[in-house]
């Protein structure tokens, strides 16, 4: 349901983008940049275990830089653009922005845990409605990459749901909050990129999401 909402909303946004003059597109990107900043800030507001969050960002960024995640993502992006004849020059940026917005947050994790443990799916349905409008907004700015984000969204939520069926106790409120905090910081970085304030290599920071889970699991009971 969530994946379908992203694809449908993104498709509508893609159709709207074709009718936008350059002047409107410019200010629209500025609005999307501010929107991304606002979402990121809202995710960081309740941050706890600051040292672990900072350490996760530092270690995850160094690891991502060593792997050169951004370079690999760019190669994949170029392949997909050639393979499917996609003309958007912001494919990668749209994909990463949408992935972080749709996948990294308390609603995603709590919703999948709730569904995986046999509870109600109401939280994921509510999130699907929110993601529909977000996808519409993002796709009208970034293009096809937002629609493609539906694939990792499906895989990510399916994996979490299956994991919750067998190990729901792993996702403690502390781990959920840590993931949300790091994801919010990365979204703030993406907002800075979109507003062209400074170019940050956000994709190389993505391993921080794994590092924060590991550190919280080891050091915080």
Q: What is the count of structural domains?
A: 1
What percent strand? under 5%
Helical element count?
A: 11
Question: Which sequence of SSEs, written as H and E, runs from N to C?
Answer: HHHHHHHHHHH
Are there runs of 5+ residues with pLDDT below 50, and where? Answer: none
Structural class, please? mainly alpha
State the end-to-end distance.
34 Å
Main beta sheet: none
**Relative helix content:** over 70%
Please state the overall shape, judged from the principal axes of the Cα atoms. globular
Q: How many beta strands in the DSSP annotation?
A: 0
Estimate the mean pLDDT confidence. Answer: 85
Radius of gyration: 17 Å
Features:
single chain; 221 residues; mainly alpha; 0% strand; globular
Polypeptide structure, described:
The protein is an all-alpha fold and 221 residues long. The chain has one domain. Helix content is 79%, strand content 0%. The protein is built from eleven helices and no strands. It is globular, with a radius of gyration of 17 Å. The chain starts with a helix and ends with a helix.
């Amino acid at each position: 349901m969530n994946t379908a909402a992203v694809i449908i909303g993104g498709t509508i946004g893609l159709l709207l983008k074709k009718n936008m003059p350059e002047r409107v597109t410019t200010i629209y990107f500025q609005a999307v940049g501010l929107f991304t900043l606002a979402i990121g800030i809202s995710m960081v507001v309740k941050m706890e275990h600051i040292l672990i969050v900072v350490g996760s960002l530092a270690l995850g960024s160094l690891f991502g830089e060593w792997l050169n995640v951004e370079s690999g993502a760019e190669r994949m992006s170029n392949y997909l653009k050639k393979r499917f004849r996609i003309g958007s020059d912001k494919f990668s940026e749209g994909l990463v922005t949408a992935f972080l917005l749709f996948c990294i947050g308390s609603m995603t994790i709590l919703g999948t845990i709730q569904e995986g443990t046999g509870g109600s799916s109401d939280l994921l349905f509510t999130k699907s409605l929110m993601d529909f409008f977000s996808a519409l907004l993002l796709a009208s700015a970034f293009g096809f990459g937002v629609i493609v984000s539906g694939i990792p969204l499906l895989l990510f939520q399916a994996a979490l749901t299956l994991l919750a069926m067998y190990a729901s106790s792993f996702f403690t409120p502390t781990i959920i909050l840590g993931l949300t905090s790091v994801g919010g910081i990365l979204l703030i970085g993406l907002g800075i990129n979109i507003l062209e304030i400074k170019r940050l290599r956000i994709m190389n920071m993505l391993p921080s999401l794994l590092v924060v889970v590991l550190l919280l699991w080891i050091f915080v009971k």
